[in-house]
Specification:
Twelve copies of one chain form a homododecamer.
Chain A (H helix, E strand, L loop, with lengths): L3 E11 L3 H13 L2 E15 L5 E13 L1
Antiparallel strand pairs in A: 1-3, 2-3
């Protein structure tokens, strides 16, 4: 097991549901890092012009640089 | 852009899922206000007599009176 | 059961005791809303000129408009 | 109504979605207690070896021993 | 002095006053544990059908199993 | 002194400075209420297309309906 | 009105009730300071050997040195 | 470097702006202590009879007695 | 991997150092549970009559009943 | 709109005023990222040898890498 | 037992370890007060020019003036 | 003095003690940054298969890129 990890914080956004927004955030971090675990920091959102709810989920991600 | 918004806080309730409870809360606020954005404050719930999980999601909503 | 409630926040004030201050806050909200439940957010106060302790109790109240 | 309840805290885990993880946590508590209500304390997770997101939802549960 | 204590969390409920609700919570814990100290976590409540205020006080109790 | 106040929460917005944003929020509340005191809940902002910093200050305002 | 106040933090203790514990804390601060306002920070306690509940209320007090 | 500092908490008050209120608080502490650093704990305020905004800034100050 | 864990909260106490106090808390939980992970909630203490510092470390422990 | 943003946290420092310190922090982030929004996390400071107040404002910035 | 205690907040600093920093803070308070109990508020630090880690532990101390 | 710093968050891990875990986290950040100061955000851990306590200390580090 490594002796240290770093944290990255991201916001994942989706109009589908909360889980899809989390997936967007994890995918963003996975571009540059190996994702080990995450924690949901907050859930925000808005109503789009198409009258859909857009979920914006902030994640704190434990990871290591690729 | 307006120079001020007000906050309303509501609880949306649904036995379907968390997203449906959020939608109930947003609909409640939309009766009297233009909804601009929201933040999930807490998620609570209970088990109903029909043995379903009832989700109770508290929202803080940035809005302007209609 | 309704599918949504709104929150109102009030401060109830009394020199009698904490319970009386809570009652003042609930009475204020009950003028315009059906009170369902409440939570104490903070308790503050001051010493009056008559040397009494004045209790100021902030309440977050789950309710529905009358 | 009883004059007291106790709190149990559990973590429910599922790769399906957040609601399924909540259900796992409630089922764990229901083995030994009558569940009255719950509150979500935190949502954490990880990416499994099968590349699925695993949701770990911490619940604080108001209950009474069976 | 023991080298460890455990925490129990309970809700005490009373329509009399806050102190009586605390007493209900301590009595619940004392059925199975020796109570050493407590901390008030939150105070909630509701208005009963008889128009009384019901106090619901959450306590975190430092204790040892009997 | 009144025996109760209500709280309103608003966001005041200005590209001038933080104090001007607070003033916008107080003015919004003053349209319908007598403002007694306020507390800054959070300060957010963004960079506008004109490359100015826009300050968005959330206020919790103790007040009474006019 | 003065342009500055200082804060003192004290714990007031009483086996009578919460209000009496608050009064003990205010009296302690009043020995050396003019008390302007206070806020309850936490409420803790214990069960005494005489089986009474002892309330320990922490106060943050806005004041000026005498 | 000293091996210990103490904290003082003060409220600085000004109708000019937030920075002037911070300065009032620092000046209050500097009467009796060497000020090393500070942190803003909260910003509150009120509207004066002269219709000015009065800023009340709470500071936690790291210092050593003179 | 199990689909649920429970949380226990304990206080571990030692005059040796913080790590020893954590060990006391983990040992207390291990009497009845399989310990999976823990989080430090708070560190308190006192000075004993023998003029030693006694460390009191509160832990939240993720575990399963034996 | 992008489906994800990342957060950067910075401290901006200025002896001029709080707004100038925020600007320093935003400029630091803008060297490598497109800044979308920010939130003030804390405001700290110190008194310089030249007897000026130095403002140190911590910002959480929503952004995307350039 | 006294009916009131006061709180002092201090920072203890040491390059040895966390326990030594706590001891420095308690010693600072003990110069003028009888220390009854303490709580760790935060742990900060820096790397010194000699490449040592310097621990800065903030304590909230329950005490009575000597 | 620079007019801005950035924050990095890391987790340092060690089975030796808390100070060693902090050192691992600082060393991780020092690979790419000049470390100016740090703050402990949380302390978690687990019991290893070899029955040792593994300390996992989260740090928020004020730094500048090398």
């Amino acid at each position: 097991m490594p002796s240290a990890f770093e944290y990255k914080e991201v916001v994942g956004i989706s109009t589908e549901n909360i889980e899809a927004a989390i997936k967007e955030g994890l995918d963003e971090a996975a571009k540059t890092h190996h994702v080990a675990w995450f924690e949901v920091l907050s859930m925000r959102g808005r109503v789009t012009d198409a009258n859909e709810v857009e979920y914006q989920v902030s994640l704190k991600i434990g990871c290591r640089a690729k």
